[in-house]
Design goal:
Elements lengths: L2 H10 L10 H4 L2 H17 L7 H20 L4 H23 L3 H7 L2 H32 L8 H21 L12 H5 L2 H29 L14 H24 L9 H4 L5 H10 L3 H6 L2 H6 L5 E17 L4 E18 L3 E10 L1
Antiparallel strand pairs: 1-2, 2-3
Helix pairs in contact: 3-4, 3-10, 4-5, 4-11, 5-7, 5-11, 7-8, 8-10
């Protein structure tokens, strides 16, 4: 039952008070707001990587979070903080979807340090949002002197912290050495950890949503004990406006990025010629082809700085088709040759890097 239908039903059936059992419980401002928050948390938590849902659903979830907290923002200071944080989160999702249409997002994803610097502050914001929701619900019950029900959101907050610990551990495993619990070898030694961490993360996030839903039911029992908040835009109008802004902005940035001035092209060897010259000279002395050494970027040269030996393994292949000359009734083989070479760079600690090159002759 929508809010308008409920209000109309009250006006038409005042002579038949009290209403039928369950009608009042089917709609209250608390239930409507918490339902939006619950759906918003779910859509921003779980991602579906198909049909562009990884962009659409999180944006919809952030908008629902904002609408849910908009209704509660005058209830207490904690819900007001939730409203502000949800507005920032919505702005971030809108900006992310718009930047996805430009090369900027690709540059961010290729820079691990920058990606970490942007991802974990957002995670901290979501943690603060959940903490403020928990404190806001406690304050809502205390404001009317009611006995506080079971603290479901506290359990949900603990689950969220545990899921963050699993996510952080998964990020740190590839970056650590094999001399402790965080090393990559732990996943090879205990194969169940590879899949178990993902299953545990999903289970914790689902239980978090269950806790929010159960706390929402307890809040709905408070009925209309809520501070009214005037709004300028209905939820449907607001959602349509958010998606319209993102769509039109994406089209605009696509048009602008396609007309951005491009840098003058330079030979690859000239781009990196002056960088890591000593490392390149060392690799060439060990036997690496000079063109290959000049094509390596800074990251690869840093990995090969302490190279011990280089092994060259050429492989010759012929490609083409046999053509026939009708004038002299002789066959002529029109064949192009390509040289495939595999370079093995021996590194300290029994490590190695392999490079495969090809050249048409």
């Amino acid at each position: 039952m929508s809010p308008n239908e409920f209000d109309r039903s009250l006006m038409e059936d005042l002579s038949q008070l009290p209403p039928a059992p369950g009608e009042v419980e089917s709609y209250t401002p608390w239930r409507a707001a918490m339902t939006k928050i619950l759906w918003g948390m779910g859509l921003t938590t779980f991602r579906f990587e198909f049909f562009y849902l990884q962009y659409i659903l999180p944006l919809l979830g952030a908008a629902l979070l904002y609408l849910g907290y908009r209704t509660l923002r005058r209830e207490n200071r904690w819900f007001r903080l939730c409203w502000v944080l949800s507005g920032v989160l919505l702005a971030v999702h809108m900006a992310t979807d718009i930047l996805t249409a430009t090369p900027v997002m690709g540059w961010i994803t290729q820079n691990p340090a920058l990606q970490w610097g942007l991802t974990w502050p957002l995670v901290g914001m979501q943690l603060l949002l959940l903490f403020a929701l928990w404190r806001g619900t406690r304050a809502a019950f205390a404001s009317v002197g009611e006995a506080e029900p079971r603290d479901w959101l506290k359990r949900g907050l603990v689950c969220y912290l545990l899921s963050l610990a699993i996510a952080l551990w998964s990020e740190l495993v590839p970056l650590t050495q094999d001399d402790g619990f965080f090393g990559p070898s732990i996943l090879e030694q205990y194969e169940w950890l590879y899949y178990g961490r993902s299953i545990a993360f999903i289970a914790l996030q689902i239980y978090l949503l269950v806790c929010i839903a159960r706390q929402s039911g307890a809040l709905a029992d408070r009925g209309y004990a809520i501070t009214p908040v005037p709004v300028r835009f209905a939820p449907t109008v607001f959602l349509a406006g958010v998606f319209a802004v993102v769509l039109l902005s994406s089209i605009a940035v696509l048009w602008l990025s396609s007309r951005a001035p491009a840098l003058e092209a330079q030979p690859l060897s000239a781009v990196h010629a002056e960088e890591y010259s000593s490392v390149r000279a060392h690799l060439v002395d060990l036997g690496m082809d000079a063109d290959l050494a000049n094509s390596l970027d800074e990251a690869e040269l840093e990995r090969c700085r302490d190279a011990l030996a280089i092994y060259d393994m050429p492989l010759y292949h012929a490609y083409g088709e046999h053509t026939y000359n009708r004038e002299d009734e002789t066959g002529r083989a029109d064949v192009e040759y390509v040289i495939l070479r595999s370079w093995a760079v021996q590194l300290p600690d029994d490590q190695a890097r392999y490079y495969l090159t090809f050249r048409w002759l």
